[in-house]
Amino acid sequence: MEKDVFCSIIAGDIPSTRLQEDNSFVAIKDIHPKAQHHYLIIPKKHIESIDDVENSDRDLMGDMVLFAQQCAKTLNLEGYKLLVNVGEKGGQEVPHIHLHLLGGEFYR
Ligand code: 5GP
């Protein structure tokens, strides 16, 4: 398995600003924020993209949404967007599944 930047962040080899963490997920501040609040919800299990999700990942995917919901609560967001880029042609830069949590003022 190829090590990507998020695997290195999870391992603590690359620093990040962590909002929340549990056994399965970490939420970090995006290094190039597109909104006032821009966090990445990253499963610790390496799955490349939504295209690679398997039946056995059903619970993990549900838990990822609940983890994002908790992060939004921590940030006191009244509304927010959850966004997933899938594959290079879908705008995905980092080959490790993640949700973008975006809230507050959006940047152009
Ligand atoms: P994607 O295009 O794959 O959906 O989004 C990847 C996101 O990861 C981008 O918004 C990018 O700014 C962010 N990112 C890439 N490298 C790093 C990093 O080393 N640290 C942090 N905190 N974010 C990163």
CATH architecture: 2-Layer Sandwich
Low-confidence runs: none
- Order of helices and strands, N to C? HEEEHEE
**What integer value in Å does the Rg equal?**
13 Å
Oligomer: single chain
Which small molecules are bound?
guanosine-5'-monophosphate
The CATH fourth-level homologous superfamily: HIT-like
Summarize the biggest pleated sheet.
Answer: 5 strands, antiparallel
CATH topology: HIT family, subunit A
Number of alpha- plus pi-helical segments: 2
Motif (Histidine triad motif): 96-100
Protein name: Histidine triad nucleotide-binding protein
GO molecular function: catalytic activity
Pfam families: DcpS_C
List key phrases describing it:
globular; binds guanosine-5'-monophosphate; about 20% helix
Overall description:
Pfam families: DcpS_C. The protein has 108 residues and is α+β, with helices and mostly antiparallel strands. 22% of the residues lie in helices and 28% in strands. The protein has a single domain, classed as 2-Layer Sandwich (HIT family, subunit A), CATH 3.30.428.10. Strands 1-2-3-5-4 form a five-stranded antiparallel beta sheet, with helices on one face. The longest helix is centred in the middle third of the chain and has 17 residues. Guanosine-5'-monophosphate binds next to β2.
